[in-house]
Amino acid sequence: MKRFLSNVRRAGNNESLGEFGKMKLHVCSSSNPTRQLETIDDLPEDATVLDLKKRFHMKKRKYYPSRQRFTKFINKSETEKEEEEEEEKKTKKNVFKGEALVPDGKKLSEFGIGYGDVVLFKDLGPQISYQAVFFWEYFGPLMVYLPFYFYRERIYGRFFGFSPKECAKPFVRAQTLALWFHSAHYAKRIFETFFVHSFSRATMPIFNLIRNCGYYWTFAGLMSYFINHPRYTSPGDRQVTIGFVLSALFQLGNFRCHVIQKRLRSSGGSSSSSSSSSETKYVIPSGFLFDYVTCANYCCEIYQWLGFNIATQTAFGYLFLMAGMSQMFPWAVQKHKRLKKLFDGTNGRKKFKRRFIVLPPFF
């Protein structure tokens, strides 16, 4: 009916009629749904979200597909509009909420979008791939750490004024092992980036590259400066051994957890319908430490750095650990709550068993 009325209007204005089998959509701004940005009238009726992004890119060359985000426009009642306007006045931000058109491979018709409908566009800004961000944020610490060990006389003597005699002191066992453990950790991270991890999204804002690299590179430099310092005082041999053994075990455990997660994602939970949600494709992690800890990968990451800091004992090492925990804890709580809500033991779904969230036996 929408196509028929549109063709009647076009005929009255001596315009070419719309093709049958094609879909016409109006693209408006997500910040101001009344402002139309573009009309796309050459989409096939079975078009996917990616098809829409490609067509929009053809008309607006600046906005390549990974930079685009589309939302289904939802007509609201007057009461809902008034509530949104009140919230906007309080927060001074646009609070429009609609159904995001994800993933890219899904058909527009599956969202209930048809001929003549409105979709809302948001510019996500310049994007960069997840793999590129992960590579540079992990490659940096690997390179930043090494000079303080291999060029100690030049760095501490020339730039920080220490005497040649102090700089020529042989490295103690804790310093050498710290070099190997720190390098192995980030080498493992880079390997996992390309061969283990799979990402639900292809890209992220390019600003994240600057922020993440600044975080990892700065801490790696500060930790290396104090661990490899000519006046560094090592803990006792027993403490060094215990710390690095603990770090090694949990580093291997972290790798095992990531491999388990990779297998879960690749299977999509199809092996056990009761332990997966068909609507959200979330899966209850199981096996190894996941049977006891919701976010076992974070658990291993934290205890690995705890072991490293027990062995090296620097203030910036512990500060790095605390900063990492402050990020991982909220993510772990959010994931734990989501799994408890999805897997509540009803409608044939598996019951999410009671377990630690991230840090046994404390949390």
TrEMBL record:
GO terms for cellular component: endoplasmic reticulum membrane. GO terms for biological process: very long-chain fatty acid biosynthetic process. Its main location: endoplasmic reticulum. Keywords: Coiled coil, Lipid biosynthesis, Lipid metabolism, Membrane, NADP, Oxidoreductase, Transmembrane, Transmembrane helix. It is found in: Endoplasmic reticulum membrane. One of its GO terms (molecular function) is oxidoreductase activity, acting on the CH-CH group of donors. PROSITE patterns: S5A_REDUCTASE. InterPro entries: 3-oxo-5_a-steroid_4-DH_C, SRD5A/TECR, Ubiquitin-like_domsf. Belongs to the steroid 5-alpha reductase family. This is 3-oxo-5-alpha-steroid 4-dehydrogenase C-terminal domain-containing protein. It comes from Bathycoccus prasinos.
